[in-house]
Write a structure and sequence with these properties.
This protein is an all-alpha fold. Helix content is 76%, strand content 2%. GO terms for molecular function: ABC-type transporter activity.
Length: 247
């Protein structure tokens, strides 16, 4: 546990020092929310709520997804400068290191997402305590899921140039397939099938349900899928670390 806590605190201290990364992580979600949301919201209303309200859960999902995965890029950077080798040879189980990376990535992603959460009153969304707790709980589950995905992926990369390219090639389709910006009801069948295997779709749907009380999937199904992804991706992340090289 001490090793796990040490890994988490080290990464959080680095986030505190690198505040530019925190600020930059808010730019893309805010652009989607206010530029796209306000622009299209002027001519579109969906399900009795404005388009801005509709895409807000999707913007939360965007923030959590990209912040979680790109927090894992520190693993690639640490490998390049030799710091990861020093961490791996320390008397700390590699499973604890991997879990620490997953949890620290999730916490780092929750910081900008929490700032976005503070915009709820400004956007005219008044949630009950139960709905707010459901929203926060889903955000935590989503952050852990996406962070595990990032750690499992980054543990195999050795270049900080290649990882963002591959990351965007995977993350952008995951985001756009999730129904974050548009309902999937009228989408082609093949697109809906792809959404069924996209964890972002279930996370966004749970958050949208908490805010708008409207679900595309049964909530228990979405919860089960997210928990399943957490188990599989966390196992994969710890397995990659445990079987990895020391450099």
């Amino acid at each position: 546990m001490r090793g796990l806590f040490a890994v988490i605190m080290l990464d959080l201290k680095r986030l505190w020092v690198d505040r530019v990364r925190l600020v930059s992580s808010l730019i893309q979600p805010l652009l989607y929310l206010f530029v796209l949301g306000s622009g299209l919201g002027a001519s579109s209303r969906m399900g009795g709520s404005g388009y801005l309200h509709y895409i807000y859960p999707g913007v939360l999902g965007l923030s959590l997804l990209f912040s979680s995965v790109f927090a894992a890029m520190l693993i690639v950077f640490d490998r390049q400068i030799g710091f990861l080798k020093a961490v791996l040879v320390a008397p700390v189980p590699r499973v604890a290191i991997a879990l620490g990376k997953v949890l620290s990535g999730a916490i780092q992603a929750l910081v900008p997402a929490t700032i976005l959460l503070l915009l709820l009153p400004l956007l005219g969304m008044d949630l009950s305590l139960r709905a707010l707790l459901e929203l926060i709980g889903t955000m935590i589950l989503a952050a852990v899921t996406f962070s595990a995905l990032g750690v499992a992926t980054a543990a195999r990369f050795r270049s900080t140039t290649v990882f963002p390219i591959i990351g965007n090639a995977v993350l952008l389709p995951m985001f756009f397939l999730s129904g974050a910006l548009y309902p999937l009801d009228s989408a082609p069948t093949w697109l809906r099938w792809l959404a069924h295997i996209d964890p972002v779709a279930y996370a966004v749907d749970l958050m949208r349900g908490a805010i708008l009380d409207r679900y595309a999937y049964p909530p228990l199904l979405s919860l089960a899928v997210l928990l399943g992804f957490i188990v599989v991706l966390t196992w994969l992340a710890t397995h990659v670390f445990a079987a990895g090289e020391d450099t």
